[in-house]
Specification:
By secondary structure, this protein is mainly alpha-helical. It has helices at 3-26, 34-41, 46-52, 57-79, 84-97, 99-113, 116-143, 150-169, 176-182.
Length: 183
């Protein structure tokens, strides 16, 4: 394949992923069609299936791509030479900054409930986040002598974040600002 074709393919794939990401945030999975994605991307609708195989694969790839970017950011943040409390505060601020990601994450979780073939991909994304937390929390757990098992701490943080995100996506934010400020 020539370099021009590879570049054109990459540009079309990126346009389709970007368009799907925007549509997942704006209208949700239920409102997305092949034609709507292609139109938003400015490409022929046949390229959706040609490049991604199915409409289920496209949003799953969006989630994976989005996750890759955020996990790289999280790992860089946790690797910084800052006190852990400052890293934690930044992680909490990301809950406010990443609302588009949160919408995509929950759209794909809900889709996976009825599409077993997507469950593995969603579970893989979840495991990537848990790995970041394991890496980030292992040192502070030892340093502060926290007796709770590392996996339990990770599960607690994941469940806490998921609860806040679910409430926000449902339009409920009562007490969240105060809770996050207190933490």
């Amino acid at each position: 394949m020539t370099e021009t074709l590879v570049t054109a393919r990459q540009a079309s794939e990126t346009a389709l992923l970007d368009a799907t990401e925007r549509l997942l945030v704006e209208i949700g999975h239920g409102g997305i069609t092949t034609r709507r994605v292609a139109e938003a991307a400015g490409v022929n609708h046949g390229l959706v299936h040609y490049y991604f195989g199915s409409m289920d694969n496209l949003p799953a790839r969006v989630l994976e791509r989005f996750t890759e970017r955020l996990i790289a950011r999280q790992r860089a943040m946790y690797a910084a030479e800052l006190p852990f409390i400052e890293k934690w505060r930044q992680a909490v601020r990301y809950l406010d900054d990443d609302r588009d990601y949160q919408k995509v994450w929950y759209e794909l979780q809900a889709l996976a409930w009825n599409h077993p073939e997507l469950r593995g991909r969603v579970a893989h994304v979840d495991e990537e986040w848990r790995a970041v937390l394991r890496e980030a929390l292992a040192g502070p757990r030892e340093h502060y002598g926290i007796a709770m098992p590392l996996e339990a701490i990770v599960a607690l943080v994941m469940t806490f974040n998921e609860g806040i995100i679910l409430e926000r996506l449902s339009g409920i934010e009562t007490g969240q600002a105060e809770l996050l400020e207190w933490i």
